[in-house]
Amino acid sequence: MKTFRSNGKLLLTGEYVVLDGAKALAIPTKYGQSLTVERNDNNNIHWKSHDELGTVWFEEKFKLHCDEIPKHTSTPLSTEVQNDNFISDRLIQILNAAKDLNPKFLISNQGYTIITRQDFNRKWGLGTSSTLINNIANWANVDAYQLLEKTFGGSGYDIACAQNNTPITYQLKNTKSPIVESVQFNPHFKDHLYFVYLNQKQNSRDGIKAYKTLNKVDDKIIGRINTLTESIITCQTLSEFDTLLEAHEALISNLIEQETIKSRLFNDFNGEIKSLGAWGGDFVLATSETDPTTYFSTKGFGTVFPYKDMALN
Predict the structure, then answer these.
(1) What confidence score (pLDDT) does residue 65 get?
(2) Of 125, 127, 239, 273, which has the fewest Cβ atoms less than 10 A away?
(3) DSSP state of 192
(4) Ordered structural domains, the chain, with CATH
(5) SUPFAM superfamilies of this UniProt entry (predicted)?
(6) DSSP state letters, 193-238
(7) Taking a C-beta distance cutoff of 8 angstroms, is the pair 270, 242 a contact?
C-alpha cells in the first residue's frame, strides 16, 4: 500500500498575468488531499473519494485494459454516493493521460483500490483538482505539470504548491517551463491577515478564458506585477502591505475590466481586501488591525481563517 499527499494552494499575487510570464507569489496550505493505492485481486480500479467529514462523495469502478481505461459504471454502493458521469469521465481522462505519459502505468491485470481523502471543503477552491493531479502523477511516476497540461490546463502554480512546503514565487518563461523558487514570506504582521471564503466556487477556466479574450496584457503590466510581487514579499509594515494590495487590485481590475471585490461587497471595511486567483469566488485576503470575523459574518461570509491557520509555513 502506498500513500501520496499534496498541499492545497492560494495565489496571493499575479492572478491571470502569471499565465503570460509574470512572477506570482503563492502559498501552500495546511489543507490538502491524500491518495492511497492498494492492490486488489480484481481486474479493475475501485475508486472512493472522501470529503473532509469522512463521507464518501464519489465512488466508481473502472475496468482495466492495457491500452485504455474505458468507463464501467457500477450500481452505486450507497444511496449517498455520487455516481456523476462528468466526474467519472474526467477521472478516466486523467488516468489515460497518465498512461500516455508512462506507457508502463496500469499495464498489468493487477487491480487497485484507490482511496482519496481531502481535509478541506472541495467548494473552497484550495486545489481539489491540482492535489489530485499531483498525487496521480506521483503514483504513475510522471511529470505533474505535463499531466496538468493534458487534462485541466492552467499556469501550473497550483502544482508547485502541491509539491512545496514553503511560500514560493512562480514564473513561466517562453518555454513554458516553470521557475519555482522558495521565498521567505513570513511577515511579522501576519496576525493581521485573514482569508475569507466568498461562499461560491469559482471556475478558474472560465476566468482564464475571459482574461485571454480581453488580451490587454503587455510587458509593462507584467513588469509592474513583478515589482508588486517582490515588494509584497519584502515589505515591513502592514500599512505598506495595504498600499501594495490596493495597487495590485487596481491594476488587475483595469486589466480584466471588473470591479474590485472591496468596492463591490465590502466598501465600508476598515482594511484592504484582495481577490486570490480567479476573481468573483473562492477566498480573498483581508487585512485588519482587529479580528474581522464578526464584520464578515454579519455580511453572510462566515468562513474566516487567520493566516496562521491556513498557510503551511
Answers:
(1) 72
(2) 239
(3) G
(4) 2-181 (3.30.230.10), 186-310 (3.30.70.890)
(5) Ribosomal protein S5 domain 2-like (SSF54211)
(6) EEEEE-SS---HHHHHHHHHHH----HHHHHHHHHHHHHHHH--SH
(7) no
